[in-house]
Specification:
The protein is an alpha/beta fold. The protein contains seven helices and seven strands, in the order H-H-E-H-E-H-H-E-E-H-E-H-E-E. The protein is globular. The N and C termini lie far apart (46 Å).
Length: 229
């Protein structure tokens, strides 16, 4: 089935949010990072301005700047109305209120849109759809990230998640996935299956995050290659 932009609700996060979400240290930020399902986040744009190295992968990068901007404009009011209706499901700490949320999200997506065409030319925004293989070499990246995609969309099934994470681990020395909840704000149904599949060959752990917006969503899954002793 073809990936259709009309089914996508663009929602962009910032470098500051990514840093808190994944507890990214200065050393982490200096590493070669690949980020899966980045959508219209400003993470790549902001990192590039700091001379850091990030490659972002997402199916929406197949579309033009104009089409992406149109889709952001089409869905903005619907998303914000849903946020206002469901405020009790979120923790208003990192983000103080709905108005600040709108300002942060629209600012992030504006930064993304302004950087998108240059980023595509520079191969920083790459069209890719999990669980398909990527074009990158084994362990080409130090760190692989997935923000608000893997585990969250548990309805994609355990096999999808295992295949996707296997490819992430092929090209990354370590991966971090946030949150470990599903869309209903309970632990993802595929979490235990993922842990069980990878824990014999990799170091797998759940660690607290410095970020919580979805209630209870303050933990990430970390998987990395076992150190040789």
């Amino acid at each position: 089935m073809a990936f259709e932009l009309k089914n996508v609700v663009p929602w962009g996060r910032t470098l500051e949010e990514y840093t808190k979400i994944f507890k990214l240290t200065d050393s982490d930020l200096d590493n070669r990072i690949i980020s899966f399902g980045d959508g219209p986040a400003s993470f790549n744009s902001e990192m590039t301005k700091l001379d850091k190295t990030v490659v972002s992968l997402d199916p929406i990068y197949q579309f033009t700047k104009a089409k992406l901007k149109q889709r952001i404009d089409e869905t903005k009011e619907t998303v914000m109305e849903q946020m206002r209706t469901n405020q009790e499901k979120f923790v208003w700490k990192n983000i103080k209120n709905v108005d600040e949320l709108e300002q942060i999200r629209m600012g992030a997506m504006s930064n993304f849109i302004n950087d998108f065409e240059l980023g595509k030319e520079q191969q920083r925004y790459v069209y890719h759809e999990l669980p398909n293989s990527t074009k990158y070499n084994t362990q080409e990246f130090d760190l692989g990230l997935s923000s608000h995609f893997l585990l969250l969309y548990s309805q994609l099934g355990l096999d999808f998640h295992i295949q996707s994470i296997t490819e992430m681990l092929r090209i990354s020395k370590e991966i971090r996935i946030f949150p470990i909840l599903n869309l209903n704000a309970v632990r993802s149904e595929v979490l235990e299956g993922v842990i069980s599949h990878f824990e014999s060959d990799f170091d797998v752990k759940i660690e607290s995050s410095d970020y919580e917006f979805q209630k209870g969503g303050n933990e990430m899954l970390i998987i990395k290659r076992k150190s040789i002793k």
